[in-house]
């Protein structure tokens, strides 16, 4: 390591930017950069910024402690923390408004929260567009694919379950603008 970076300064910049809600600061003295060799740069040489990657300052995804609080406060009592295929997430069971049972697995993919339907077995069995279900069994929450918080992913999965129960009975997903 030739140029050792001041990690306290990196931390201070990142936390300061996060607290002010600044993702990509314009000011060089508030930014953190990395070069093509994987080195962190705090004080780039003038004119070299174009060759560097500016580090986004948003909070890293999925805080397990915060997720546990959401689970305790807002998810069903039957929710269990599970480690599935290398991912920590939350398994919970619900009953749709039409009486069908579902078991779901909510997890962060590193940027958004996803919900996988574990029961009933739905992966690859339905038209993705009509059922709002990806071929791998994840609920499709829209253009982004996932949702920004565990609470939102859980809430939308409950609505999806009732919509899917209706879809199984009628062939139409009731909460889709295409079916209005």
Rg, Cα atoms, Å: 21 Å
- Compute the number of strand runs: 7
Quick one: biggest sheet? 4 strands, antiparallel
Unreliable residue stretches: none
Query: Which strand order does the major sheet show?
Result: 4-5-6-7
Classify the helix fraction into a percent range. 25-40%
User: How widely separated are the two ends?
Assistant: 61 Å
- Silhouette: elongated
Task: Write a structural description.
This protein is of the alpha+beta class and 180 residues long. 28% of the residues lie in helices and 19% in strands. The chain contains four helices and seven strands. A four-stranded antiparallel beta sheet has the order 4-5-6-7, covered by helices on one side. Strands 2-1-3 form a three-stranded antiparallel beta sheet, with no helix packed on it. It is elongated, with a radius of gyration of 21 Å. The termini are far apart.
Write the layout of secondary structure elements.
Blueprint: H1 7-20, E1 33-34, E2 40-41, E3 53-54, H2 64-74, E4 80-84, E5 87-95, E6 101-108, E7 113-119, H3 128-131, H4 150-170
Antiparallel strand pairs: 1-2, 1-3, 4-5, 5-6, 6-7
Structure in a nutshell:
The chain is an alpha+beta fold. It has helices spanning about 5-20, 65-75, 130, 150-170, and strands spanning about 35, 40, 55, 80-85, 85-95, 100-110, 115-120. The protein starts with 6 loop residues before the first helix and ends in a 10-residue tail after the last helix.
